[in-house]
Design a protein that fits this description.
By secondary structure, chain A is mainly alpha-helical. Chain A contains 6 helices and 5 strands. A 3-stranded antiparallel beta sheet of chain A has the order 4-1-5, with helices on one face. Classes of the chains: A mainly alpha, B mainly alpha. Chain A: Belongs to the GINS1/PSF1 family.
């Protein structure tokens, strides 16, 4: 029956609402193949309908299947678009390589364009007051203390603070750092706050 | 159009045959002029089940009978001649509301989530998140910084995949 492959695609995207999956290029190509086949059959039958009126219903059925496929494909792409937007807000503008593989090429292009527009918007904020822009992707809650104690979760490497000190972030090492430096890294999951 | 009915042996479907087709196909065929099909309600929205739901909706296992009970009901209600389906949906939801509330606060999630339909489960999950956020806020007053939602779930999935390999 038509329209079954698209449903599998949608179920795949619904299964993990919090993460994004690998772009299922194979399935998308199969569905577009199916749509081509349906379209060709319909063209043949529509030309033959002038002699035989009873083929009209078949054309209708195939046309509904085509529209259904198109709608479901668009829904799949749209849900991925929403997830990619969240990726920008949570991972920052530089995606780690394993996340980068999950997106298709056009999706990555869209991501970079979105990133650029977002950065341009953030830079334009606060211009009247004299700021060079506010980073909206940071933690939006006001900090409770000037310094925080953090535990490092992965081997991140060297972190340079504002006053020039260099801190080496190794796995399971604890540090006492100013909040402003740590915010991005905590949100990215590199550090964890200990209280 | 014989391919629509798996039981028929001929190539063409005759008028008057009963076929089961998906809703999207039925809707579009129904709305062509002249309508190519007439739609019959699915089992759950018929008289017998309606009686059961009106009597006591809390004992019905909506997950087994029809996961997308409410959403499908909204679409199907158009084809109902008497117009009863809409009332049934509202009544069912009113009766099951308490169940949803108790499911969102309960710790034994598996058995309380079982009889709920898909949309009810989503609402339960949202209620549980809100409750957790509220209790967290009341307990500490300050909110510690935490990793972003998608990053955390991405990490968890990667770890699970690594363990499987």
């Amino acid at each position: 029956m038509f329209g079954e492959k698209v449903i599998e695609l949608i179920k795949e995207s619904e299964r993990n609402r919090d993460t994004i999956d690998q772009y299922n290029d194979e399935k998308v190509r199969q569905i577009i193949e199916e749509m081509h086949v349906l379209f060709k059959m319909n063209m043949a039958d529509a030309n033959a309908t002038t002699e035989n009126k009873s083929l009209w219903t078949t054309v209708q059925v195939r046309h509904s299947a085509l529209e259904r496929n198109k709608r479901c494909l668009l829904a799949y792409l749209h849900s991925r678009m929403g997830k990619i937007k969240t990726l920008r807000w949570e991972f920052g503008s530089a995606l780690p390589s394993d996340v980068r593989e999950l997106l298709s090429d056009s999706e990555y292009e869209w991501f970079s364009k979105y990133s650029t527009s977002l950065a341009a918007y953030m830079r334009s904020l606060g211009r009247e007051i004299g700021y060079s822009g506010i980073d909206l992707t940071e933690n939006l809650r006001p900090p409770k203390s000037l310094y925080v104690e953090v535990l490092c979760l992965t081997d991140y490497g060297k972190l340079e603070l504002e006053d020039g000190d260099v801190v080496l972030l190794k796995k399971h090492s604890r540090h006492f750092l100013p909040t402003s430096e740590c915010q991005t890294l905590i949100r990215r999951g590199v550090l964890r706050q200990i209280t | 159009m014989g391919f629509l009915d798996p039981a028929s042996t001929e190539d063409d479907l005759r008028t008057g045959t009963n076929v089961e087709i998906p809703l999207w196909l039925a809707e579009s065929l129904y709305s062509r002029r002249p309508p190519l099909v007439s739609v019959d309600l699915p089992k759950i929205y018929k008289e017998a089940y309606r009686e059961i739901l009106n009597a006591d909706a809390c004992t019905v296992d909506l997950h087994k009978l029809g996961q997308h009970f409410y959403d499908l009901g909204c679409y199907v209600a158009k084809h109902d001649i008497k117009g009863e389906v809409g009332n049934t949906l509202v009544n069912t939801f009113k009766q099951r509301f308490r169940m949803i509330l108790s499911a969102s606060t309960s710790t034994d999630s598996i058995s309380s989530l079982q009889p709920l339909s898909n949309s009810e489960r989503i609402r339960t999950a949202n209620a549980a998140t809100t409750e957790k956020a509220l209790s967290l806020w009341l307990k500490r007053g300050d909110c510690p910084l935490s990793t972003a939602n998608m990053v955390a779930s991405h990490r968890k999935r990667k770890r699970a995949e690594m363990e499987m390999v």
